[in-house]
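note to self: dont lose this again. the chain is below, predicted strucutre after it. 321 aa total, dont forget to put it in the shared folder this time
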Amino acid sequence: MKKVVVIGGGTGNFAVLSGLRNYSVDLSAIVSMADDGGSTGVLRDELGVLPPGDVRQCLVALSDSSRLMRSLMNYRFENGGLGGHSFGNLLLSALEKVTGSFEKAVEEAGRILSIKGKVIPVTTNPVRLKMILSNQKILEGEKEVHLSEEIHKGYKSIFLEPFPDVNKRAIDEIMNADVIILGPGGLYTSLIPNLLVEGISKALRDTQAKKIYIANLINKRGQTPLFKVSDYLREIQRYIGKDVFDFLIVNEGKPPQELIKAYALEGDLVQNNLNGARIISVDLLSSGLKEVQKGDRSQRNLIRHDPQKLALELMKIVNSL
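---
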């Protein structure tokens, strides 16, 4: 059975994992620990726990339990003192307190959800993502980076504070993988934070695994306006240290015009400007509407990757090895 490692965070990881879990592969998800927005941010600040949100999404994506259980993990309370919190985030935070370890909490939650694979925090140190812009402004935390519309004007540095120790399990997974997948996901909030943890970039350079980058569908306003696939690749290469990717999967499908118009204020479609044998250009768009959980305060994309289409292309690569 081939060993496949997915690196990222947020809804990008969810799309890749929920598609691949239907195939016979040994799956591991390495997850960013920089999230500090929404329910996750409140729990971090009030309880002193590690961020559960991205981990929860990976656990649900890999879960082999009932639809009811998966829905329960994603359920968000609509009002009262728990308004905006997801049940899964509360469960992970409680498990961390009971077990005394975030990693143990993730393992126990994995057992409860009967996950098909492993979910591994890239670090178990509490960290904050910070970015210093060219105008000297400092963005404090993943939430501020996510909401910023000034990054496209230039930035001097992006880093994690305090500087974290890498989770050795993450390094082991990368070094023993057959295939490693990076993306899709927020460039500065989901992907690069993993590469800022010492040892991850070196492992990606040194591993013998085939490496795949999945390009985003939509550029983010004020951060990656008019970015093409080569621009994303350049930024990621800046933190890995070299271009390590054997394959780049890019979308060639066109969403309905009404959706493009709806996204006009948020961002433009990512255009592919690369060619060559390693470029896999296919229609990856989902045609269905995403269910929005009541009480969920975050915006949900309607233009998004189809997990089954993604998995089909990824498994063509896995099966060719």
